[in-house]
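User: Okay, second chain of the day. Same drill as before: sequence in, structure tokens out.
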Amino acid sequence: MAVINRSAAFAEDITAWRRDLHRHPELGLHHPGFDFNDRVAPVGASVFARLVERAQPPG
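Assistant: Same drill. Structure tokens below.
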């Protein structure tokens, strides 16, 4: 079975999106004053793991 790199089709869009985010520091991304709530990290990891599990082919 061939492996398909689905993200390659979006490489230019992703690059443009990242450059746009860095041009707008007012969005608060990568801001030293951002207070990340460490207590929610396990919840996010669990949700992500379930999404990956559901995306796997049966078997």
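The chain has a mean pLDDT of 80.

User: Thanks, on to the next one.
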